Amino acid sequence: MKKIKIIILFTILLLPKLVFASNATIAITGVNTAAVGNNIKMYVTLSSSAAIGSWELTLNYDSSFLKLIGSDADNGGTFMANKVAGASGINKKVYTFTFRTLKAGNTLLSIGSSSLYDFDTMGEMTVRTYNKNLKIMTQQEIEASYSKDNYLKSLSVDEFEINPVFNKDTLEYSVEVPENTKTINIKAVANDNRSTIDGLGEKEVVVGNNKLNIVVRAQNGSERIYILNVNVIDKNPIEIIIDNVTYHLVKYKEYLTIPSGFEETTIKMSDIDIPAFYNKKINYTLVGLKDEAGNIYLYKYEKNKYERFLELKLGNLKLTPLSIGNKVLNYEKETIDFDGKIDVYKIDKRFKLINAKNILNGEEGLYLLDIVDKTAVKYDLKDIYTLRKLNKIYLATTIIFLSTTALSIIIMLSFKRKPKIKDKEQKVKEKTKKELPKDEKVVKENKKNK
């Protein structure tokens, strides 16, 4: 037995060490599809669990499909070689290649000859390569391949049940929540993971109906809208009808934003304290009204009448528009959308005249409104009328002056022309006198002949 052990030990010492080659991979990664004429990036990655000491390899591609724009390989080409300096090798190296796609079709990027060496043993590594197939399409082909699926797979509201039960083909749902509910959380999953969804997450709600849209946008851009009506139960709703449109009075001040120059107050309606805002300078009382879509607007309230309140923030000015007549200073009336619809007098596309009240000091009058810069200045009609009178006087004076000047020029020209006529008559007489002796000669000769 002892003899056998000695033989085995002797054999181990004499036999050369067996060296097993370490493994490495070379992979080409990047986009799977690309449009003709676009620039794309492809990556060649060398990796191994063992330390790589040196390598050399080549990237092959079809130049009829791709044009190499640049790379961080040797000389910006497709040949990659390096020797690691230092005490240890590397486990990963990535090269980046930029190509321009030339024509539609399928093409292959592949690794040509390659050699990788183990840093520790200096032995050649066993390499496994992963090539890359690329599909190049025209823009029309790419768009035609996009998914048209814009359906939801599921829709829900945290802690509450929607009605009816969700079905991807049903586009409108409702849910009832308690009166004190301020926010809800909407969740949904797209039928196609390439689609996008807008309208999810935490949403503020107010008493009454809140119409919320969940928009599903397919990969090809087509949209489908799911409607969620969230009814925050109002035990004692107060309905207000204005121009045949039904509104609900807002009973919680948390839903309202106080405008400049106002202070909080309350007014009694149907034995309920309604939150309101009051401005002593302009003597306005404002309340909040909510429409069927859940939008809240401030209205001026006076003697059971309601008028939409608008606050125009124009630099240092805070104005609220007033009603106007049909015409002023030859400027016609028009309606524009400027933080809400307001009636103005049109001067030109940029400048308008508005009749407004200054919220901060109560001054009322015409203002020149610049709808581009969103500024305004006081417009005094007295100054305009005075200026117009001065313009008329100036115009009349100018006309008289020009008329007098023109008449003077005509008279002067007529005087200058008369001497010329006299000179011409004098020349005719002198010419006649000179020619007269010749005529007398002719007469004498005729007498002789007789």
Description:
The structure is a single chain. The protein has 450 residues and is an alpha+beta fold. It has four domains: 7-143, Immunoglobulin-like; 152-232, Sandwich (Immunoglobulin-like); 239-308, no CATH class; 312-379, no CATH class. Helices cover 20% and strands 47% of the residues. The chain has helices at 2-14, 139-145, 381-449; strands at 23-30, 33-35, 39-60, 66-71, 79-83, 90-101, 105-118, 126-130, 132-137, 152-157, 172-177, 183-190, 196-198, 201-204, 208-217, 223-232, 239-242, 245-249, 263-269, 272-279, 284-290, 296-302, 305-308, 312-314, 317-321, 327-328, 331-337, 341-346, 351-358, 364-370, 375-379. It is flat, with a radius of gyration of 47 Å.
What's the CATH topology name of the largest domain?
Immunoglobulin-like
**Gyration radius, to the nearest Å?**
47 Å
Give the class from helix and strand content and strand pairing: alpha+beta
Q: Show unreliable segments.
A: 3-18
Question: What do the pLDDT scores average to?
Answer: 85
- Tell me the domain tally: 4
Name the overall outline: flat
Helix residue percentage? 10-25%
Number of strands: 31
Number of helices: 3
Main beta-sheet strand count, sense and barrel state: 9 strands, mixed
CATH-level-2 architecture of the largest domain: Sandwich
Question: What fraction of the residues are assigned to beta strands by DSSP?
Answer: over 45%
CATH class of the largest domain: Mainly Beta
- End-to-end gap: 194 Å
How is the secondary structure organized here?
Elements: H1 2-14, E1 23-30, E2 33-35, E3 39-60, E4 66-71, E5 79-83, E6 90-101, E7 105-118, E8 126-130, E9 132-137, H2 139-145, E10 152-157, E11 172-177, E12 183-190, E13 196-198, E14 201-204, E15 208-217, E16 223-232, E17 239-242, E18 245-249, E19 263-269, E20 272-279, E21 284-290, E22 296-302, E23 305-308, E24 312-314, E25 317-321, E26 327-328, E27 331-337, E28 341-346, E29 351-358, E30 364-370, E31 375-379, H3 381-449
Parallel strand pairs: 1-8, 2-9, 11-16
Antiparallel strand pairs: 1-3, 3-5, 3-6, 3-7, 4-6, 7-9, 10-12, 12-14, 13-15, 15-16, 17-18, 18-21, 19-20, 20-21, 21-22, 22-23, 24-25, 25-29, 26-27, 27-28, 28-29, 29-30, 30-31
